[in-house]
# Entry
Amino acid sequence: MRTREVIEAEAKYLVHTYSRPPFVLERGNGMHLFDTEGNRYLDFVSGIAVNALGYGDYEILETISGQARNLIHTSNLFYTEPQVVLAKMLVERSFADRVFFCNSGAEAVEAALKFARRWGHENFSSPKVRILAMHNSFHGRTYGALSVTGQNKYHKGFEPLLPGVDFAHFNDLDSVKKVLTPQTCAVIVEPLQAEGGVVPAEEEFLRGLRELCDERGMLLIFDEVQFGLARSGELFAYQHYGVEPDILTLAKPLGGGLPLGAVLVREEVAQYIGPGDHASTFGGGPLVCSVGIKVLEKLSDPKFLMRVRENGDYLHDRLRRLQARRSEVKEVRGIGLIAGVDTEFEAKALVEEFRKRGVLVCTAGSNTLRFLPPLIVERRHIDEVVDVFHEILEQT
# Structure
């Protein structure tokens, strides 16, 4: 199908949940994507943090091919080796004792909320069932995940949402203390609010949450769906802060482009979940877990993580140098290989200007650009993107 035919067919046959730019992607290689007209784009979106290893990674492709020839799906009624191997790898590299596999970040959050409420029922004579979430957060679009998402624009028209959810201000421990109740069983927080503007948590805030949870008998849930798995420069974002949660949600890069989510939990939580309490037909299948093993091997390599930290520092340095030269750039935020840049312009308009110049970036708010490259990015790619940004500002 030609570009125009694809766009027209999308308008006719798909539910219109996305507003897309007028081009059709066809293939990818390394840091670049190519459309059906032969145009090449330097990718600083990475499928919204999914394609951490870029496009066409040989080992990932070989893993997919090899496993697909043997076994793609069985359901979770049966044992498969890749699932157990990947779970063991995640446990050995983290705070957790056990893992639950699913297919996406939203599903991981749903499971985390269920696990927390089950823990709240089993541990207290008067069950604790309330969840404390943060304003400006984003945890997903399924009902439970949406209910703990602190942005009203996503709620509108879908009420009533899940009861028993309270909200406090991010990076404001006093706000949290005011909202907590004796019935609060868990606090859910992103170590970095990505969709909410690329706003990192303050270390003091996360440490304060950990102390509050310990003092008041609550679980601490970290949502690392977008920011976890090496993007911070540490394998898990909580390691960047030195604050351990009780439950951790993962997804996006874990499956190497295939749908794979995971919930990491301590034994004190997992002990209350038994057969029939939660499940996923597709979650943790042999194909996606085989790929997850290879992805985790690569992302947890110390040399790989060091390069992420170094290139992340370089990205933020280049953007801050641009900010010093251009008054239109108001603020640069982020950690590792995720950066948010506030400007005086509409972010969507700037995204289109980048695309016209062969660079893909995305938004994180009405005036915030988000730079989210594959973790294999090199300095020359960062230079190219920042130079294009400067050119756009010069001509806007």
